Amino acid sequence: MSEKLPRPSQVTLAGWLIVGGSLGVLATVYSQLSRLRSLDTRESIEKTLAEPPFDHLGVDVGTVLDTMHVLALVTGAFAAAAVVLGWHVLRRHQASRIVLTVLAVPLLLSGMASGGFFSTLVAVAVVLLWVPQSRDWFRGIPAREAPPAGPSQAPGEPRSSQQLGPNPRQRPYAQQAPEQGTPQGAPQGAPTPPPYPSWLAGTPHPAAPVRTGQPVQPPQSRPATVTWAAVLTWILCALGALGLLAVGVICTADPGPFYDEMMRQNPELRGQGLTEDLVVASMWIGVVMGLAAIAFTAVMAYLTTRGVAWARVTLVVLVAIAIALLLIASLMAPVMVAGLSLAAVTLALLLRPETRAWFHRFDR
């Protein structure tokens, strides 16, 4: 690991997301442990255990609290380890990347008990550690350049007959080239005519220098699947942003229904001094966080259209998470089925063979 290689941007992004997300999981676990044994938590658990299907399990409140305590400690241990491993990943430690990949699965599952946002962020960041650019960097392989279009040739070296092309007339004309720079009878200082007729003017001169290191590749346009995937993503982002802003405006204008619903779902909040102003403030915090996630998704869609491979991988993960959330939301609001369909089509377009083949052109 002593070789100094420039760190790819996707590794830098993934490493800091892992460190930041793991610290967020630790803060959430600490908050959960601090109120785990409170009276409100006990009453909430008792109410849950008294309703079906938990009323037939025969589990008491103490057992549930002990289980939640152990689960929170395990999640905190996973998060603390992820912070250290994320820091070592930024220093190109191969073993840390492997251990972190294995650790991401239990961290994601155990983190669901504390909200799941930060643990999901860590899982998405771990995916970025396995894109082609990241794999090469961890193996100590520098950025690979595309191979030249033809065989290498020193400047000024004459091309062979095979390099001139399949035209059989090229070699005889090349052999008829005069040894002297000026043909007999030509005035002094006149330019030397080419040793081949004018209809071969498009063929490179045998003695012309050949440029190396500049591969000529046939242009490949962006597939329509990539373009439509980005367009559908931006449509979903616009609809999501409008929905969040509408909820925030409605809550600000009339917070009463939101306050009543929160009191109905969590009666213990009534004795904690929760007011309608706090409900509005909490709602706008959620709106801002949602808009930040939507903006991040839109940026990933733009980078995907520019051929950035790790952005496509990130977008696939984000769209998959959106499908899971929309599937849950569609059970409560059937209108969400439209958004679910758009997200499913977007994911299918991102996984199409022509989409993957186009992004392989940008692998280094």
From TrEMBL:
It comes from the Bacteria. The chain crosses the membrane at residues 12-33, 70-90, 102-131, 228-253, 274-303, 309-328, 335-351. The keyword Mitochondrion does not apply. Keywords: Membrane, Transmembrane, Transmembrane helix. Residues 142-221 are annotated as: Disordered. Residues 174-189 have a biased composition (Low complexity). This is DUF4064 domain-containing protein. It comes from Nocardioides eburneus.
